[in-house]
Amino acid sequence: MAGIRADKARDATDGYDGGWVAHPGLVPVAMEEFVKVLGDRPNQIDKQRDDVTVKGRELLEFKPEAPITEAGLRNNINVGIHYLGAWLAGNGCVPIHNLMEDAATAEISRSQVWQWIRSPKGKLEDGRKVSAELVRELIPQELANVKALVGQVAPTYDRAAVIFEQMSTSADFVDFLTLPLYEEV
């Protein structure tokens, strides 16, 4: 609880107007921290960062801060399959690798893989290019890892692997990760 309280206090003092919690029982803790900062104001739009100036073209510059590793690529594939499989089984908030994850985490995983495939800078630290073929080679291995972790062989995970492969390797970027999933339920 102390960690959640500290996390929400940081969010509020950083200028956020609200935050995500993993369980409805945590809403009062989060609200308390936001009320301390917001009081009766509806938002913190007045809290601006004049020290930050970003141009549109800068948002499109792909500059990994650290080398892309095979472990990182595998983690993105694993998290994507794990989350999608759980979502298809009816869970929108899923514990993955000791973290409570939602669609945003899986979206980041899928988006990074998609971007790494398309960018000439999408190379692993050992020099291999992240390609659709490499991703397709790793998906069955990560699917097996997810199935071993969840302790079941649910058909949703097999379908999730297919969907993740399609969304991360297709030429077109699907607007949001869960859109193709709605066609499945």
From TrEMBL:
Reactions this protein catalyses: glyoxylate + acetyl-CoA + H2O = (S)-malate + CoA + H(+)
Keyword Transferase recorded: yes
GO biological process terms on file: glyoxylate cycle; tricarboxylic acid cycle
EC number(s) on file: 2.3.3.9
Keyword annotations: Glyoxylate bypass, Transferase, Tricarboxylic acid cycle
Family membership noted in the UniProt record: Belongs to the malate synthase family.
Any one Gene Ontology cellular component term annotated for this protein: cytoplasm
Signal peptide, first to last residue: none
Designated name of the protein: malate synthase
